Fold:
Amino acid sequence: MDDTIIDINSSPQHFYVIIKGEVRSQDNLENRVMVYHQKDSFDADALISGVTEYKYIACEDTIVYEIKRDSFLKVFEKNRAFREFYTMCILDRIDYLKRKERRESSTGLFLTMRVKDSYIHKACIVDSSISLKDALKLSIELNRSEIIIKYENSYEILTDSDIKRLLYQDSIDMRKPISNYMVSFT
Structure:
């Protein structure tokens, strides 16, 4: 199953806004560049330049709103504020969003929080020899949608979406070590 939304070096025909789910961008070496979530948009630069530098892949069940390239470019040409926002460098764009959030919100919300003040979720990290059942139990207790599997010198990840695929394929034995289920996803 190919979950590619935009392929690398293609000429995108839409501007995307995520309604539900998660999208990952990766370079031609398959290194993750960025992860986008609900209400994020992606690849405006490619609409402006005409070619995308990255591959965009749906990481889980994802719904995106597509705005036709011509519509995006029409607004881009006619609306100065819109054009300036999408031609800013990423640091200026983040600063702009923080200032806008402060103006519109009395609390300042997430963008203005200090890292030391933010809520940190405990990761679900398990040894590769633990059974899938015990790993799932821990992830439920920690309210995590991913399980990080620790090997001797590396880590891998198993997500809820991966578990759904395994269930669909009817290939789960809850007593086997979690490491048995990583082969399908590498």
Notes: The helical segments are 44-49, 69-78, 80-87, 90-104, 132-141, 160-168. Strands lie at 4-6, 14-20, 23-26, 32-36, 41-42, 55-58, 63-68, 125-127, 146-150, 155-159.
